[in-house]
């Protein structure tokens, strides 16, 4: 299986989405950098650069999913990105498996078009107990089902990812996150969450400066 790494924004939005709606199941799609993508390759390395929050209550309404995926696909093409996976958090705190996740048909449709797709399940227990370690489980599609990757192989592009996400949660940035349910209720809201991306970039830059000072 190819390696899967996540940029800070991708991981942060997954966690913020789950944190905003702790009593709901949530889901979204993952975008990968399209620069090195090879069509049809099932085991290529993926750099997940962003995640797009979909729903917290419209999981099974296919017209809404079609609207969302069409808009996301158009935006992704403009940014040289591809829809390369799916994420979800279960409603029940103890459910942390693919089988219990909402909207699995979306994940199946993604892997149909993109064989290297990943399915990320939010680990609800780690969300509550310990944010010093990744609160996700990554799965790849093989032999007709989603199989978990080694938990020790959750890779981040930045060493500050967990620190940044913890900072965002302390500032309660999750309340500002917009998913497609929010956007369909009010089309003036920004489903790309550009404001949060800018905040993440600022925090990352600040963390890097602080680390440099500490090492001097």
Automatic annotation (TrEMBL):
InterPro entries: EMC8/9, MPN. Coiled coil: none annotated. Residues 4-142 form the MPN domain. Pfam families: UPF0172. PROSITE patterns: MPN. It comes from the Eukaryota. Belongs to the EMC8/EMC9 family. This is ER membrane protein complex subunit 8/9 homolog. It comes from Bicyclus anynana. The gene is LOC112053437.
């Amino acid at each position: 299986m190819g390696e899967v790494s996540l940029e800070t924004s991708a991981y942060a939005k997954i966690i913020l989405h789950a944190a905003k709606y702790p009593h709901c199941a949530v889901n979204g799609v993952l975008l990968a950098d399209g620069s090195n993508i090879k069509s049809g390759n099932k085991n290529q390395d993926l750099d997940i650069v962003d995640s797009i929050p979909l729903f917290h209550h419209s999981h099974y309404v296919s017209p809404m999913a079609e609207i969302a995926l069409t808009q996301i696909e158009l935006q992704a093409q403009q940014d040289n990105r591809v829809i390369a996976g799916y994420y979800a958090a279960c409603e029940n705190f103890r459910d942390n498996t693919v089988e219990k996740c909402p909207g699995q048909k979306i994940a199946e449709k993604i892997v149909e078009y993109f064989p290297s797709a990943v399915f990320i399940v939010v680990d609800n227990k780690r969300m509550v107990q310990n944010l010093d370690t990744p609160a996700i489980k990554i799965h790849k599609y093989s032999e007709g089902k989603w199989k978990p990757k080694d938990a020790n192989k959750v890779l981040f592009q930045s060493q500050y990812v967990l620190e940044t996400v913890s900072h965002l949660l302390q500032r309660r940035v999750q309340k500002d996150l917009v998913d497609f349910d929010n956007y369909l209720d009010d089309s003036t809201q920004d489903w790309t969450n550009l404001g949060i991306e800018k905040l993440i970039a600022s925090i990352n830059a600040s963390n890097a400066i602080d680390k440099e000072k500490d090492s001097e």
